[in-house]
Amino acid sequence: MSRSAIVVSEIDVAALIGEIRSASFGAVSSFIGTVRDVSDGRRVTAIEYSAYSAMAESELQRIVDEAEKRFGVSALVVEHRTGLLELGDVSVAIVAAHEHRSPALECTKFVIEEIKKRVPIWKMEHYEDGMREWVDPTRSKHTSPA
Amino acid sequence: MSTVTVQLFASYAELLGASSIELSLAPGSTVSELVRKIRLLPGASLLPTTPRVAVNRAFASSDQRIDPSDEVALIPPVAGG
Prior knowledge:
- Chain A is of the alpha+beta class.
- Chain A is 31% helix and 41% strand.
- The model of chain A has no long low-confidence stretch (mean pLDDT 94).
- At the A-B interface, β4, α2, α3 and β8 of A face α1 and β4 of B.
């Protein structure tokens, strides 16, 4: 019942929730990541996501497998989108279901934190002034002209 | 010597001006030896001293040996989410 995917088309969050909802679960927890219009005080107009797709898919699935074991969750769906996303677009969606709320909530938090550490996906922010920068959470950014 | 293809992505691909590079490595070479060779290439001086390396789609330790048939990639700091 659990699965993960790197996708290029719009993520349908309602469909993901519908995919794992069941009368046997008392809790469905979701985390939805979206494209924000400001980064470090600069106006963002879009974000371009790219990935080492083959590894991103396998690493994402490893995270799902770990989360299932760790939280006893048997219904977990994760999708991460790549390509050029506009403001407000959904970049990542994580939906977990469990009999009780705590494992479902903890599971979604675990998955997004692990994605940020381990899944080879990168984002280039496009700014209002025409500049673009690779987002590097570990150091100063690498700048390139638009 | 054998030839290994190293995939490059995002900021590292821009720094080195290519989406992949080919390197000659002595048999039994490790990830750290691969990185040392990459850092000698034009544009590579801005790479971190110890960039993350993936071998066969999993993160590798610095002492992991590289086989010519391995799928090798240099992984810039990830920023998913």
